[in-house]
Fold each of these.
Amino acid sequence: MEKRVYNFSPGPAVLPVPVLEAAQRDLVAFPGAGCSILEISHRSKTFDKIINEAEANIRKLYGVPENYRVLFMQGGAILQFGMIPMNLLRNSGKTADYVVTGTWTKKASAEAKTQGSVRIVWDGKEGNYNRVPKAEELKFDPNAAYAYICSNETIQGVQYPREPDVGGVPLICDSSSDFLSRPVPIEKYGLLFACAQKNAGPAGVTTVIIRDDLVARSPEDLPSLLNYKVFAEGKSLLNTPPTFAIYVVKLVTDWLLNTIGGLEKMAEINRKKARMLYDAVDQSKGFYLPHAESASRSMMNVPFKLSSDELTQKFLAEAAAVDLCELKGHRSVGGCRASIYNAMPVEGVEKLRDFMLDFAKKNG
Ligand SMILES: *Cc1c(COP(=O)(O)O)cnc(C)c1O
């Protein structure tokens, strides 16, 4: 087999090796089916079992209450940026509250404006999106259609330690880049969604966890694939779903349950990995400059800068030479970014930490 590098890509991102191996082992003939998962009907018993298990796994991992639907949709996270206001804002006669903490909430609020009235409750632009707001900076409208946040801004590397209190308003969360990375009290949310390709599987499927009373709000004049109510009634099978992507989500969630042992355990490992990198940054005496303020630091995406573009280029080239790959930061933030999702092994982060310490010593 071709060697594997440590892949710190923000997404599509690293997957657990046992998941890739299981998909490979069963690719040509899925046990009991006599043909590939790529070749079977989405209406077959085999696929029915797979999609039901993927849902059951997510329900078990998060403890999703009975009054929530788990949907597998297409169009990525960005289609949700539009669907949420189409279903919950456009006909409501209300305004939606958005908390803008980085690139993805900025984009989500812009998409929402195509459907209705949007109020920006807080915008982190002044600090170049280096933190999430404090509780006292957030005044939500008690009559808003919903309040919208992104739990983890993938590009800026800022993450809410816990969800803000939005009173009785439905809380909507883009959890694309920290989905299944830690326990979440789903009962505090109206809708939580995540594209799979950061932390839960390959590109092509987006998981939407939505409370029944919000499902019921969908207006009738929306096309069925854009209508949560119709989509939920069709149990995510209105049309051909991304069968292979859903299958890999099932494998990833099996791995989380059976190999890792659940989200408490996963969070403990993720905290340990993140701490290693932030310690290396903090102890470098300014050689590495973190983007996010300490209290808002992401456990999933760790952006940091070096003192010049030249030094950054040198860092990236020397890191890649020892198989530490995809560490370039997003152009809007610059510098470097290490994405250390669930599937990034502790050894990969240790190797990066050691490389960072060594590089600082030689170039500081
Ligand atoms: C990647 C990402 C998106 C965009 O996802 P697509 O599947 O490409 O639409 C949205 N929000 C967050 C937080 C992301 O990390």
Note: The longest helix spans residues 263-282.
Amino acid sequence: MLSTNVSIEQKVNLLEFEEKGVHVYVKRDDKIHPFISGNKWRKLKYNYELFLDSGCKGIATFGGAFSNHILAIASFCAENRIKCVGIIRGEEPKVLNHVLVLAKLWGMELCFVSRQAYTEKNLLAELWQGHGYFIIPEGGDNDAGAKGCSELVDELLRSYDHIFCASGTGCTIAGIANGVARKKLKSHCHSIPVLKQGEFIEERVLAEVPNIINLTVHTSFHGGGYAKTTPELLRFIHYLAKETGILTDPIYTAKAFYAVSELAKDGYFKKGETILIIHTGGLTGLLSEKMLSAVQKSIL
Ligand SMILES: *Cc1c(COP(=O)(O)O)cnc(C)c1O
């Protein structure tokens, strides 16, 4: 596997943090790999071990047409000469987007299924299992995925009062909470669900760490729902990029950074507290036609 040495912790110097006397850092998991980035790398680590033990002939997995997970699996499998299948939600588009073109370049077999058929993922999984493939669930969300994410906590160079990350399935924050509990740290864990009705994230974390008390799920920063944006969020992407050099994507990471900025302005943190944001990667989310055009408009 690759090394996570490159995932450094660095200070995020924004005026709102300085004004409130809080110290915000980012863990640059986005630097782990350009395409197997952030939490997708961590989720893959132990799934890869399970795959090797399974004796299966390849890996099959699930995702939407813009999925960072699909991209990560395609890239990883090409680097490791593993046959792979991406079961993609929705009919095959006439022109493939950047994620699917890259996946194809890396030799992933794309299998498009209707949204209706996609709801029966278990049946599809059984089918591909029958063909000798090891199944990794959508987003890499399983126990092995959470275990990989929990290792992020072992790498931390200092202690933090708060740890934040963006959540889709909640696997990453569940792993982090597990790592925090395992190491008996005092850090409070915060999830920023990027979709509406993110309350379910709490259940996902509870499955990993029963009776957890140091968890807050902030359900009001989804910006309208999954892959939806607001003018404030788009402006924030620009602000963060020009003030710090850190690029974020509008689907996931920008929502986490924006939440921390807003919470700081609202006086949510105590003076002197230390806060860590996990940059979970996924920059290709910024590079779709739709998002580039939205961001561009917000800058003008
Ligand atoms: C997939 C993804 C997430 C969501 O992680 P979960 O473990 O599903 O909560 C967050 N950030 C980025 C950049 C992602 O690609």
Note: The beta strands are 9-11, 23-27, 58-63, 83-89, 109-113, 133-136, 162-167, 188-193, 215-217, 274-278.
